[in-house]
Each structure stands twice: as structure tokens, then as C-alpha cells.
């Protein structure tokens, strides 16, 4: 473990800091929330860009001008390597290894860093199977050939083909078996574009579709998702560990796909509702939302993750309720978007993040 000094430093790794070293600056609201919450745990907070560090022993960072007033101005400072680190680099940069040198240095120094790199979609399915929790996952296979995909369509009638390492609903395709050995293929985001893409393919044309996919893809049974107002619904369930290392529910956010939409991601045409809105609309259609089951399933998976990955602190699960009432995990988001959360959820998130940082530093 790193040598503890007073005060203890919580370093937040982010690219959202000025590039020109300006003398006075105010970070985004959530970073200020974390810094406020950190005061009660005896932590000082600094923000730094992990890709712009020349010397790890003396970070170029931003800290509050007045440590007791983190809502005021912040200024450039050189700080020692933090006692605990919250790595909050954008997911597309993290995937490309932007934070890899920081992670390596933290390991070398024995400094806890959250969140660690977590399994991708396929690895997550394998993890659930090993943990005896595959009941929460839809039937999923690694996509190999067009014949394999055709067999999955014959078995399940509707399947989703998705990249193992994707995010934001990008290149997620829904395939539906039609009469006459035809397949309807639809995507909300494909090839970097945010617009509906749809084709009806013959069985021979399906081989060309499979060849067009780049990288590793999965084929997953199409879930019979709960529908409200004719729109499919899933639930973002966000959890974070607290100052005791225990998982706490930050919030549940229902997301509704566009009519005939493939995914519920907001960028792909989905819509965010409050849980109260969704429950009221579902009741008008004689449907129940099993909130307790959603939370229990998410917490069970999160606890299994933290047993394996000791510094995991934040997870966002996209959870599904099938029309028959079964609760499933569609996928796990290691960096769930804060934009889905309301103010009370954000306050709780910041409180948990500061508390969990203190928990890790104490250990």
C-alpha cells in the first residue's frame, strides 16, 4: 500500500481539465459534488489528465483555491501521486488504452484505483456462468458463421447481433426470421451513423452480412421485453459502493426505445422516463414493474463482480423485464452515463464515490 500522508489525496483522472493551464477554472458540477462529499472523509481532491503527465511523482493537476470551498475556483497545482484514484476517462478513450500508463503506475505503487478494467460483453457472459448466475443472462453465443446465425434464428426467431466491445448501441442489429427463408435486419446506429438501417435478406445474403461485421460479435436470443405504449423498455440500474465497501442503489432509470427501435440508447432515439412515470403507464395497461427483483438481480451480480475485482465501485446494468416477468441482464456498463441520472441520484453517486475512495485508501 502507498504511504499515507495528511491530507489524503483523491485523484480523479479525466480529460475534462484545461489544456492551457489557465489560472482560474471551475470544473463540472459532478466533480465539485465529489469534492464536497470528500471533505467529510478527510480527502482532498485533485483533477488531472493522465495522458498529459511528465512525471508521475509530481502530478500536474487542478485543486480548489480554498480546499474548504470546492464550489469556488480551482487552480493549477503540483501534487504528489494520489492515495486513491478514480479513473473517469471517457469510455472510448479507456478502451483505446488512454489510462493504461496510469493504471500501471498505480499498480506499481500499490495505490488503489477504481474502476478496474471489467469484462466485455462476452467475457461478462462467461463470468456469470462461472459464478452460477447465468440465469440472469439471455442465451448468448459467440457468432462464428452465417450457418450458425441461421440456426440461432431458427431456434429463437428473433436474435440480436452485437459487437463484444461496443457501446452506445453502435452496430447492434436485430434480426427477425420471416416467411420464405428471409431475414429482416435492422439497426439504429450503424457504421458511426445515427439513423435507421434496415434490409430484408435471403439466406444466401446473410453470409455477406456476417462477412461485413468487423471484430468479435455475439448472437443473443431476442428478449420479449416489457412494452409500454407499444414501446420496448429496459432499465438502467446504477449501483455504487459506499464508505463501508457495500453496494448501494444510486437509481433506476427506465429507457424506452423508439417505436420498432432496436436499442433504447438515448443517442439512438430512445427516451428517458422516471420510474414513477413508467410504473404509472404500465399500471394503466395492467402491467407490473418488478422493481425489487431488478434491484436484487443487479446487486447479486455486482457483489459477484466485487468478489472478483476488489476495486470495482461503479456499475450500471441494463436490465430487462420479459413479458413473462423474468428479469435479465442485457449488459453491464462499467462507465454508465451520468446524463441519465437526476440531481438526487447524482448527489448520492458523489457521496458514494467519495466514501468508497476513503474505504479504499483506508485499506
Automatic annotation (TrEMBL):
Q: Name one Pfam family in it.
A: ATPgrasp_YheCD
Fetch the InterPro entries from UniProt: YheC/D (IPR026838)
Q: What is this protein called?
A: YheC/D like ATP-grasp
UniProt organism field: Alicyclobacillus vulcanalis
Starting at the broadest rank, the lineage of the source organism is:
Bacteria, Bacillati, Bacillota, Bacilli, Bacillales
Amino acid at each position: 500500500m502507498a504511504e499515507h500522508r495528511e491530507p489524503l489525496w483523491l485523484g480523479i483522472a479525466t480529460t475534462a481539465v484545461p489544456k492551457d493551464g489557465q489560472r482560474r477554472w471551475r470544473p463540472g458540477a459532478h466533480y465539485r459534488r465529489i469534492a464536497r462529499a470528500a471533505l467529510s472523509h478527510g480527502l482532498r481532491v485533485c483533477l488531472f489528465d493522465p495522458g498529459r503527465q511528465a512525471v508521475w511523482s509530481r502530478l500536474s493537476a487542478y485543486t480548489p483555491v480554498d480546499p474548504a470551498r470546492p464550489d469556488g475556483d480551482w487552480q493549477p497545482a503540483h501534487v504528489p501521486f494520489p492515495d486513491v484514484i478514480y479513473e473517469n476517462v471517457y469510455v472510448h478513450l479507456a478502451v483505446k488504452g488512454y489510462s493504461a500508463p496510469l493504471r500501471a503506475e498505480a499498480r506499481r505503487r500499490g495505490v488503489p484505483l477504481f474502476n478496474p478494467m471489467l469484462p466485455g460483453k462476452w467475457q461478462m457472459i462467461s463470468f456469470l456462468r462461472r459464478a452460477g448466475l447465468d440465469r440472469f443472462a439471455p442465451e448468448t453465443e459467440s457468432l462464428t458463421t452465417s450457418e450458425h446465425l441461421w440456426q440461432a434464428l431458427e431456434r429463437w426467431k428473433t436474435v440480436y447481433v452485437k459487437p463484444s466491445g461496443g457501446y452506445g448501441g453502435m452496430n447492434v442489429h436485430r434480426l427477425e426470421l420471416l416467411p420464405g427463408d428471409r431475414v429482416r435486419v435492422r439497426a439504429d446506429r450503424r457504421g458511426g451513423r445515427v439513423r435507421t438501417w434496415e434490409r430484408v435478406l435471403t439466406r444466401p445474403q446473410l453470409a455477406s452480412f456476417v462477412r461485413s461485421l468487423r471484430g468479435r460479435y455475439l448472437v443473443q436470443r431476442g428478449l420479449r421485453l416489457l412494452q409500454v405504449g407499444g414501446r420496448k423498455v429496459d432499465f438502467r440500474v446504477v449501483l455504487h459502493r459506499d464508505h463501508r465497501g457495500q453496494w448501494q442503489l444510486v437509481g433506476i432509470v427506465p429507457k424506452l426505445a423508439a417505436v420498432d427501435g432496436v436499442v433504447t440508447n438515448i443517442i439512438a432515439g430512445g427516451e428517458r422516463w422516471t420510474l414513477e412515470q413508467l410504473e404509472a403507464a404500465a399500471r394503466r395497461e395492467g402491467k407490473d414493474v418488478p422493481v425489487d427483483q431488478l434491484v436484487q438481480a443487479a446487486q447479486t451480480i455486482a457483489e459477484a463482480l466485487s468478489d472478483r475485482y476488489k476495486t470495482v465501485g461503479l456499475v450500471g446494468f441494463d436490465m430487462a423485464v420479459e413479458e413473462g416477468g423474468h428479469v435479465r441482464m442485457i449488459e453491464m456498463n462499467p462507465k454508465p452515463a451520468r446524463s441519465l441520472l437526476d440531481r438526487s441520484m447524482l448527489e448520492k453517486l458523489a457521496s458514494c464515490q467519495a466514501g468508497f475512495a476513503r474505504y479504499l485508501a483506508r485499506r
